[in-house]
Amino acid sequence: MNTVIMRPIALPLALVSAAMLSREPVRAGPPNLLFIVADDLGWADLACHGNDLHETPNLDRLAAEGVRFTDNYAASPVCSPTRASFLTGRFPARLRMTIWREAALERGKRKLLEPVCLDSLPLEETTLAEILRGAGYHCAHIGKWHLGRAEAYPQPHGFHENIGGTLWGAPQTFFYPFSGGQYFPDWRYVPDLEPGAPGEYLTDKLADAAIGVIERESRNGRPFFVNLWFHTVHTPIEGKPDLVKRYEAKIGPDSIRKNPHYAAMVHSLDENVGRVLAKLDELGIAGETIVAFTSDNGGFVNTCKLHPGLQVADNTPLRGGKGSCHEGGIRTPLIVRAPGVTPAGAECHEPVFSCDLMPTFLRLAGLDAGPPSPVDGVDLTPLLRDPAATLGREALYFHYPHYYPTTTPVGAIRMGEWKLLEYLGDGGPPELYRLTDDLGETRNLAGAEPDRRDAMLAKLRAWRESVGAQMPEPNPDFKSKK
């Protein structure tokens, strides 16, 4: 039986104890919320998840101080739908947001016509920021937004301020001034990060902005919700030159991971998470601040045109990557540190997903009434208090009716230790895997377990019907190349 091998987190006992004592809750009022999201960071990219190249001491330490979820999923294998699920707690299929903004209105020219989706999060949807704002929180969004055009920017969705968030999903470059037309065909920019100087790095600047908001709101005495959504480690893959050299020296002929530029970006991400967490300690508010860290989808396993022929991420031991409903596309890191709630250094193996974070944040903030309209996620605080607990949830569902270099249109269901993928008209028969002894999804058991396969297919199809999931359609103009 194969098991997930986690790298142990080695911290001196005295250091951990001091850290725990400093983060005991120190006030009776509502806690601050710091939600940190990486872009395209895979589950296997953290040292505490077994990565043998990347150095992530700050995220490893956060895991040593809170609960690390080994079986966390993004609601979608691509960015915008998952980000919508963070804020609304609702399935991307229910929202009709199943692909990123730029591709939402395109049907493609392949065998199947992809459904036309919403390119902006509707203002009718109730967001986490709206509820927190109504409860007296100062809500700040910093970094990537990618949830629609200007009328659907962070401010209409409840945020008091927006630093850096636009309709675009990635910058032209990670080096100042972050703009122009070098990488993508359109002219892009990242606003509200001036003044700047040549050589400054976007990940650093976004952390600077978050630190500034935290310092200001700490002085004001208001509870804050800082939504820090980094652009890294999305393309263009650009690490700081000194860090690239550092990882070039670490990569050997037997190394699983071969991309020093990507490793350098992960390093800068971790460094800046550490800077923000250190500011909480310096201000004496770590004990009254809930911190959650995750990613919007699995690691990108294709290439970046800045480094032709060099695969960006390697999600080993998981199969596939961004865009795919195999584990490498949807399984992501999740670490939560909630003072007075989470035990230190705990692992939770219960399957959870991105829709769960909205109701969980509301409960942790003391808003026990929860969201005003039904959501698809559930409150994870029972798992935060007791990571060995279970939720009693029957299944997690995924719907990606689109093409990507890693997949054709596909849906998936996870039930306990079992996972089934159904290709939606262009991709072959169903696939069934038992994840407890086949995390890499190498042995398709659909033929050996026909009853289980058919029962899971029926549940997946019934779920799609219940949420009004849009489906791809045959393309009458498609001509096979055969």
Features:
16 strands, 12 helices, 8-stranded mixed beta sheet, 482 residues, alpha/beta, 2 domains, Alkaline Phosphatase, subunit A, globular, Arylsulfatase, C-terminal domain
What does this 3D model show about the protein?
The chain is α/β, with parallel strands linked by helices. It folds into two domains: 29-393, Alkaline Phosphatase, subunit A (3-Layer(aba) Sandwich), CATH 3.40.720.10; 398-474, Arylsulfatase, C-terminal domain, CATH 3.30.1120. Helix content is 26%, strand content 14%. It is built from twelve helices and 16 strands. The chain has helices at residues 13-22, 57-64, 79-88, 92-95, 128-134, 202-220, 241-250, 260-283, 327-330, 357-364, 381-385, 450-467, and strands spanning 32-38, 67-69, 72-73, 112-113, 138-143, 161-163, 224-229, 289-295, 334-337, 346-348, 352-353, 396-400, 410-415, 418-423, 431-434, 473-474. Strands 6-5-7-1-8-9-2-10 form an eight-stranded mixed β-sheet. A hairpin with a 7-residue loop joins strand 14 and strand 15 (431-434). Helix 6 packs parallel to helix 8 and helix 7 crosses helix 8 (260-283). The longest helix has 24 residues, at 260-283. The protein is globular. The two termini are 42 Å apart.
Compose a concise summary of this entry:
The chain has 482 residues and is α/β, with parallel strands linked by helices.
